């Protein structure tokens, strides 16, 4: 993937910051309801994204709407493996919903890390990555770890360094089913467990 495309993808990825913002200003219950609605819409639209025939039929039916422009943008920012499987946006929303539901104390920090640190890791890795680790880079790993630590610390979350390292390692090794899901869940669970064990 070319750097320009990756930058565009990560800029769109930053829309995810809407979730912690809604949580801060409108509360947990509203955010959960909002995510359920968003997830329902994403799931309803996913077959159209994955099925070219269905997409072509829809374009013919709605010929007065320029769906080709939307299709072009989606195809451009989607990674190769996402064109044949569930999209990263669905994994991200499901993880955000689970984190807010079960781990509200760390939800804002964890979701913010999943948006910002993931973007920084990718951009730094592609621009400055020299030391390769699997298909990622040490530079990207460090960008994730440092930014995640700063974000978690800013939100007053204890054991921020541990959470940052867990998230960075999950992203580095691309833990299934998708790093947009796994990074949030592993960070939230790790922070919950270490806080629970410390009492």
Share of helical residues: over 70%
Largest sheet composition: 2 strands, antiparallel
What gross morphology would you assign?
globular
Number of domains: 1
InterPro entries: Dgk1-like
Transmembrane segments: 7-26, 32-50, 86-103, 109-129, 141-169
Protein name: Phosphatidate cytidylyltransferase
Keywords: Membrane, Nucleotidyltransferase, Transferase, Transmembrane, Transmembrane helix
List the helices and strands and how they pair.
Elements lengths: L2 H11 L4 H9 L1 H23 L1 H10 L5 H11 L10 H15 L4 H22 L3 E2 L2 E2 H17 L5 H13 L6 H19 L2
Antiparallel strand pairs: 1-2
Helix pairs in contact: 1-7, 2-3, 2-7, 3-4, 3-6, 6-7, 6-10, 7-8, 7-9, 7-10, 8-9, 9-10
InterPro entries: Dgk1-like
GO molecular function: ATP-dependent diacylglycerol kinase activity; nucleotidyltransferase activity
Keywords: Membrane, Nucleotidyltransferase, Transferase, Transmembrane, Transmembrane helix
Explain what you see.
- The chain has helices spanning 3-13, 18-26, 28-50, 52-61, 67-77, 88-102, 107-128, 138-154, 160-172, 179-197, and strands at 132-133, 136-137.
- It has one domain (3-194).
- A two-stranded antiparallel ribbon has the order 1-2.
- α8 packs antiparallel against α9 (160-172).
- Helices cover 75% and strands 2% of the residues.
- With 199 residues, the protein is mostly helical.
């Amino acid at each position: 993937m070319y750097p320009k495309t990756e930058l565009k993808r990560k800029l769109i990825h930053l829309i995810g910051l809407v979730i912690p913002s809604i949580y801060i200003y409108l509360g947990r219950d509203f955010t959960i309801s909002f995510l359920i609605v968003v997830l329902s819409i994403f799931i309803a639209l996913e077959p159209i994204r994955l099925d070219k025939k269905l997409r072509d039929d829809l374009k013919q039916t709605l010929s007065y709407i320029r769906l080709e422009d939307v299709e072009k943008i989606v195809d451009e920012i989607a990674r190769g493996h996402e064109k044949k499987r569930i999209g990263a946006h669905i994994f991200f929303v499901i993880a955000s919903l689970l984190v807010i539901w079960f781990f509200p104390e760390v939800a804002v920090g964890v979701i913010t890390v999943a948006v910002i640190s993931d973007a920084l890791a990718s951009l730094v890795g592609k621009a400055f990555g020299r030391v390769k680790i699997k298909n990622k880079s040490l530079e990207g790993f460090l960008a994730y770890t440092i930014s995640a630590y700063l974000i978690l610390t800013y939100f007053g979350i204890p054991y921020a360094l541990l959470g940052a390292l867990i998230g960075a390692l999950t992203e580095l090794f691309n833990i299934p089913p998708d790093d947009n899901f796994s990074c949030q869940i592993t960070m939230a669970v790790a922070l919950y467990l270490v806080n629970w064990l410390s009492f």
